[in-house]
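Hi all, a correction to my earlier message: I attached the wrong file for Riboflavin synthase. Here's the right sequence:
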Amino acid sequence: MFTGIIEEVGKIESVYKRAKSLQITISGNRIFEDMHVGDSIAVNGVCLTVTSFQNKHFVADVMPESVKMTTLATCKAGMNVNLERAMAATGRFGGHMVAGHVDGTGQIVDIQQIDQSFIFTIKTSPTILEYIIYKGSITIDGASLTVSKKENTFFQVSIIPHTISETILSNMYKGTFVNLETDIVGRYIKHFLRSNTQKDTSKTTVTKALLCENGFI
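and the right structure:
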């Protein structure tokens, strides 16, 4: 589990392409402070497992599903990536609940600066937009952000200068594709509501009993 608070920007040192998967080597600094083989690291929002590490480089495998669903399919040596270690049980929850299981990608279609904020407009598929709500949380390349606007084919986020400067969002431009993970809590609630509706079409509203039954309260 992650929180979407990027710890540092690392760099892809090498990419080894297999038939349907990848092996990537990434360099960094801070994330190596307490690294162990088997640790989970979010790389541009994609949860990867450390298979080996030395001299501030770690190796991870990217499975076919992640290659298919994320922008790691086009990663190259020299690219910068957002990095976050899995949250410690005693750590602060600075962002929101992030699983590192990317739902798909979106494309930046506009970037505007208004005063100190940067407004990113991102176009994505209806299946992802279905789980995005105004003022809700969204993870973009691993960074926890708040939705400032949602329309039928796109959504917007307003990003503060600190987040821009401390992440790879500073390198984004119109046309860039980004990894998107919607709010996991919202996804579960919608899943349970659909299951409940299929079981009994007469019950279509969220009730306290329904939320208790499914472990939300």
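Sorry for the mix-up. The helical segments are 64-69, 126-129, 161-166, 184-199, 208-213.
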